[in-house]
Design goal:
Blueprint lengths: L1 H11 L6 H13 L1 H5 L1 H10 L5 H11 L3 H9 L4 H13 L3 H13 L6 H13 L3 H14 L4 H13 L3 H14 L4 H9 L10 H7 L2 H14 L4 H13 L3 H11 L19 E5 L4 H7 L11 E6 L4 H5 L6 E4 L12 E4 L3 H4 L22 H9 L3 E6 L9 H4 L15 E5 L17 E2 L8 H9 L3 E5 L2 H8 L4 E5 L21 E5 L6 H20 L3
Parallel strand pairs: 1-2, 1-4, 2-3, 5-6, 5-8, 6-7, 8-9, 9-10
Helix pairs in contact: 1-2, 5-6, 5-7, 6-7, 7-8, 7-9, 8-9, 9-10, 9-11, 10-11, 11-12, 12-13, 15-16, 16-17, 18-24
């Protein structure tokens, strides 16, 4: 946090001569708990130095869950559009969207203009609620004030796309790309809305209005009419897999998977004896972990290489797989060093994998040991049930807002007796724990800077409870009892439909959010189950 703030100040005011004074102010603010406990003091100090305290107050709100500096600013300047907008974001983080919308509405009613970030939070929240008309009004007002903001055009495109207005969505995405040519999400969404894919635009609204079976029937017709449409084929495959139709589902899913621009021929099931095959990770860590063991199903005599993300290499190399492991970045894709190559998520179709009858059972992976000596000692002396938790996923994932929770949703679990909680949470979401000074949550993730060490940490615990993330898959692949909390809509295909279990992870239990059910209610059910199962979990039954 401290270096980031220092860089922000330096970039904003490079001409400040008293740099040592600025640096000391930042150190006092972030490094000294007394200074943080007296926000009025550092707010005034920042003003005397010629800096606005609002960006720092917003950072403390978003990253540390501390609202007191923002509350002071609001008390001092109750009609400042940027401060009121930041306060509305805080209300949104507190799961009070009505109050947040009221604050933004008050700014507009006074003739004020929220900053782009405020409009993005405001319109984005309405979009997530499915209020496309109201969100559209926000984007119209925002773009009137900030016509050259690429992110606002992208967000407006999402909303009109959700409403089925493909031409308007494409126009917004193209404007966003004209302003920001590297806007990856705008590129992605515009590609999905390409003319040949237009029939699939009706799917989202259709799925909300009809049954899954009817959606599948529509998708089948569209996949037959547009067989070269990769997003459509993958979506149909996804739908079939969720329903347990693995033979046909993997076929369509594989047709929708991407490919590498390479001179190496793609493998289509040709004999592999005395031939070399490159398998490359084409999707996330959960996919890598869940299906990595299928390499053992390849015929003997093949020279197999598995290329994975840099962060996964050490853990993959520990798995005693019948293949070499390298990083994807180290592969020369324009050379002909292999006879064949294949995306990992296409293997299931070629190997005719039926997940309802898995070819093997967990543990599918091996956890390294000895990488966390402190935690191995601490966990060995902890006589309570040791539970690792992950409450949020990777925020860069497009569907993260649906699957991720907030730590406050988990609070009912923490008053259970004879249970110790260990945080496996990484990234920005881990900072949510700073909002509770007395929360008994041990931060084992702090020492897990690699997947290899995360696997070691999981092996020390008795149970892992997680949202749908790579950690959940890793724990289940290690054979650890794993409870997975799933969103009420757009659930990943691998968790199937309306089940509390899955065949390929027999030690996993699924907790599904009901439609419109708040996460807090889901965790009351998790708490009851944990209380009921405590004796058997403690004895490894």
């Amino acid at each position: 946090m401290r270096p980031a703030l220092a860089q922000w100040l330096f970039d904003r005011h490079p001409d400040v001569g008293a740099w040592a004074l600025v640096r000391q102010a930042i150190s006092d603010l972030i490094g000294d708990a007394a200074a943080v406990s007296d926000p009025a003091g550092w707010i005034e100090s920042f003003r005397q130095l010629g800096f606005s305290p609002l960006p720092v107050a917003r950072a403390m709100m978003r990253e540390h869950g501390k609202s007191s500096p923002l509350a002071i600013l609001l008390g001092q300047q109750s009609e400042d559009p940027e401060i009121v907008s930041a306060w509305a974001e805080w209300l949104l983080l507190q799961d009070d969207p009505s109050a947040a919308f009221e604050q933004w509405g008050a700014v507009v009613a006074r003739g004020g203009v929220p900053p782009p970030s405020g409009y993005i939070a405001w319109g984005g929240a309405l979009h997530e609620q499915g209020s496309h008309d109201r969100a559209g009004e926000v984007w119209e007002r925002a773009l009137s004030a900030f016509p050259d903001d690429a992110q606002l055009h992208y967000m407006a495109g999402r909303t009109v796309q959700g409403a089925g207005l493909s031409e308007a969505a494409v126009a917004h995405y193209e404007r966003a790309l004209a302003l920001s040519p590297r806007h990856a999400q705008a590129h992605n969404n515009r590609g999905i809305l390409h003319e040949r894919d237009a029939p699939f635009l009706a799917l989202a609204s259709f799925q909300r209005a009809r049954s899954l079976a009817q959606s599948r029937d529509l998708l089948r017709h569209l996949a037959e009419a547009f067989p070269n449409c990769r997003p459509g084929r993958m979506l149909y495959g996804w739908n079939l897999l969720a329903a347990g139709n693995y033979k046909e589902g993997w076929l369509h899913y594989a047709a929708g998977c991407g490919s590498k621009p390479t001179k190496i021929p793609e493998w289509h099931g040709e004999p592999l004896y005395d031939r070399s095959l490159l398998i490359f990770q084409d999707q996330g860590m959960g996919d890598l972990f869940q299906f990595m063991h299928l390499i053992r199903l390849l015929p003997d005599g093949a020279d197999v290489t598995l290329a994975v993300a840099d962060s996964a290499l050490a853990l993959v190399s520990h798995q005693r797989l019948p293949c070499k492991a390298v990083t994807t970045s180290s592969v020369d894709w324009q050379a002909s060093n292999f006879d064949f190559q294949i995306a990992q998520m296409k293997l299931q179709s070629l190997l005719a994998v039926d997940l309802l009858n898995p070819p093997s059972s967990p543990p599918y992976m091996i956890a390294p040991r000895g990488l966390l000596p402190y935690w191995e000692g601490a966990c060995a002396s902890d006589r309570r049930l040791k539970v690792g938790i992950v409450w949020a996923g990777n925020p860069r994932y497009l569907g993260d807002s649906l699957r991720s929770t907030r730590l406050r949703d988990w609070l009912p679990l923490f008053d259970l007796p004879d249970v110790s909680f260990y945080s496996l949470q990484k990234d920005v979401a881990s900072n949510q724990a700073l909002a509770w000074d007395d929360l008994e949550l041990q931060n084992i993730a702090f020492d897990c800077e690699s997947w290899e060490k995360t696997a070691n940490a999981i092996a020390l615990l008795d149970l892992v409870i997680s949202v749908d993330t790579g950690v959940a898959h890793l724990a289940a692949c290690l054979g650890k009892p794993t409870w997975i909390v799933l969103p009420g809509k757009f659930t990943d295909f691998r968790w199937m439909l309306e089940r509390e279990d899955v065949p390929w992870y027999p030690q996993a239990r699924l907790f599904r959010q009901k439609v419109a059910e708040p996460w807090s209610e889901v965790f009351l059910r998790v708490r009851k189950q944990l209380s009921d199962d405590l004796p058997s979990l403690r004895h490894g039954v």
